[in-house]
Design brief:
By secondary structure, the protein is α/β, with parallel strands linked by helices. The protein has helices spanning 44-60, 97-100, 111-122, 181-185, 190-193, 201-209, 213-237, 253-266, 286-297; strands at 4-9, 13-19, 25-32, 38-39, 42-43, 66-71, 74-75, 82-84, 106-110, 131-136, 140-146, 149-150, 241-245, 276-279.
Length: 309
């Protein structure tokens, strides 16, 4: 049976998905990234991924048709590497995966792009033509599915939705843009936004549930900023659905209920109906599924495979 390998390379964990052409997994596993550790002069995560590919090929008795690798940063136009990722995951920027894993065909893409593709293929965006995905975690990322295509832009930069401006008088973020959605919502600034009291959304929500007035106020401000950001993106992209992924999205009803209330106040709703807001169905595996699908879409069906993509 022909199979594809999807790899989601994160700062702390590597998610491995081996599946058939229909996206049915036959292997899912996680392993530590070991960022900063070298093995024979190369990043430990590179050695781990090559060893994983070799092991799964031996287990399956057949080489993979292709490998998709999802990682943070901007993918190079030739999809062989991450071209721009300064300051994080030493060795990732410019690492030529196609050469390293040769002769297996390799496709490299941004992690938020991969998460959206995974949800389109097997998750909450199946069958839709226009979707926005937001990843809510340490930062805020995203991706746009427009008219049945992933919006990439000239430099694969499209989809950095966390870097839209909500406050032109706010402090500059990592892209120099002031008052970004990422700074208003992401966990990277939560400690600053709470005067040093909280570092995680979970801790903030636990305090708010106990009646902590400051925690509740910070959460309301975060929800307000997220609603305004989503409503702005809806006005630009006119999607059928907005999918929320990432650690903050795991807050569930504590996020979705107040977010919907705030959206009802600020969203331009046509015919009395707003855009549907849902959680990512694949959870933390969205990126691995998306990486596998991107690799699959670059491969013609093997002789006798039957199913096309």
């Amino acid at each position: 049976m022909n199979w594809i390998l999807g790899i989601d390379l994160g700062a702390t964990r590597i998610k491995v998905l081996a599946c058939d052409r229909q996206g049915t997994p036959w292997k899912q596993e996680m392993q530590p990234t070991r960022d900063g550790t070298l093995v024979e002069g190369l990043p430990a995560w590179a050695a781990a991924i090559r060893e994983t590919l070799n092991r799964l090929e031996a287990e399956r008795g057949q080489p993979a048709e292709g490998v998709g690798i999802s990682a943070p940063g901007l993918a190079a136009p030739d999809e062989r590497s991450i071209a721009f990722m300064p300051g994080r995951m030493r060795g990732l920027e410019g690492f030529d995966w196609a050469a390293y894993l040769d002769p297996t065909p390799v496709t490299v893409l941004n992690d938020a792009h991969a998460a959206l593709l995974g949800e389109v293929w097997r998750g909450a965006a199946q069958g839709l033509q226009n979707v926005i995905l937001l990843t809510l975690g340490t930062g805020v990322g995203g991706a746009i599915w427009s008219e049945g295509r992933l919006l990439r832009g000239v430099r694969n930069r499209a989809g950095h939705l966390g870097h839209i401006c909500l406050d032109p008088d706010g402090p500059p973020g990592i892209t120099r843009l002031p008052g970004s959605l990422e700074d208003a919502v992401g966990e990277a600034t939560l400690k600053q936004r709470t005067g040093g009291r909280f570092e995680t959304t979970q801790a903030l929500l636990e305090a708010a549930s106990r009646g902590d007035a400051q925690a509740a106020q910070v959460w309301r401000r975060s929800i307000r900023a997220l609603a305004c950001g989503i409503a702005s993106l809806i006005n630009v992209c006119d999607p059928e659905r907005v999918v929320l992924a990432g650690g903050i999205a795991e807050a569930g009803a504590s996020l979705l209920a107040p977010l919907q209330t705030e959206l009802d106040r600020v969203e331009w709703q046509l015919a009395g109906s707003g855009v549907e807001i849902v959680k990512a169905r694949l959870g933390e595996w969205s990126g691995a599924f998306g990486a596998a699908w991107e690799a699959l879409r670059r491969r013609p069906p093997a002789a006798g495979a039957g199913t096309t993509v």
